[in-house]
């Protein structure tokens, strides 16, 4: 296993790949150029088993170790960008206006490509590596679709690992934890049905704006007064649509938002209580509600043995002081959770330094992080599949 210095030779080439991908971002499943670029690089490394078109534009490439048969582990990178107008002002700024790699998936792809090149050249492991390049992490459940397309069984993947860059963490540091590391994500919509009328005569109406406002305020107490303060729950109302006129009280108001939780029990509680809270308030005003709730990303849950394996790979690369193996869980969500439901595995964060935050128009992946990501993947493979 290796220190990061071994992988600095590939940094310049990986930087070129990363900046090309950054200049040419694509969204969701529409990754035709990105997928073609990745497949071409994989083929140039001498990898001869490459399957494209999984979940439309996903790729799985297989590298067989030189030391005989053994298990297969999966390494996943996401490839899609976000619908954001870039404001980083870098020379490699997006050339596709309104599309931007604002979450570092360009860096994730370049790091896995760098690891692929190294592993294909050395093959110092016993077993098989399945390199998973995934579309539609941001909005389309690409991980779920790749699992549904059968990649875990088709490639006999026994364990699966993911990685994400993290602004605010120093370059060359890693963070991980056993168990819940990122939140489940749900969305809800509430339609409040009252009785509209003239804004000058509110007493003649059942004002759904007032009802909706009361619901918004009351939902905050689900967090502050109805859950244990040691358990994490976030309820955010992000939509509130009412009348378009100043002098009209509408018949209906539509509101909606998101729920983030770190336990299945709390997830069930939130769904039940949001509906009950909204209905109770509406009934008190003589109004009615329609409620819908959608479960999107599951809880991202690291398995104990795979967390240990991932921690060991990072520790050998950067040392004890630069690995935090009890990082606090994040309330953001990650569709790699679907792969962790299908197979045991672990998700780790790699430092991106003092960059702007994820999903920010000024964000850019720091190319100094590339050799650390490449080295982590290589150490993970060579330790898990020791020859």
CATH class of the largest domain: Alpha Beta
What is the CATH topology of the largest domain? Aminopeptidase
* Helix-strand topology string: HHEEEHEHHEEEEEHEEEHEEHEHEH
What structural class results from the helix and strand content?
A: alpha/beta
What distance separates the N and C termini?
12 Å
Q: What profile does the largest beta sheet have?
A: 8 strands, mixed
CATH architecture of the largest domain: 3-Layer(aba) Sandwich
Percent of residues in helices comes to 25-40%
Strand order of the largest sheet: 1-2-4-3-5-16-6-15
What does this structure look like?
It is a single chain. By secondary structure, the protein is of the alpha/beta class. The protein folds into 2 domains: 4-182 and 299-384, 3-Layer(aba) Sandwich (Aminopeptidase); 184-295, Alpha-Beta Plaits (2-Layer Sandwich), CATH 3.30.70. 34% of the residues lie in helices and 25% in strands. It has helices spanning 11-23, 32-44, 105-122, 142-148, 151-154, 208-224, 264-285, 304-318, 337-342, 370-384, and strands spanning 49-54, 58-64, 72-78, 128-134, 157-166, 174-175, 179-182, 184-193, 197-198, 233-241, 248-249, 252-261, 288-295, 300-302, 323-324, 345-351. Strands 1-2-4-3-5-16-6-15 form an 8-stranded mixed sheet, with helices on both faces. The protein has a 4-stranded antiparallel sheet with strand order 10-12-8-13, covered by helices on one side. The termini are close together. The mean pLDDT is 95.
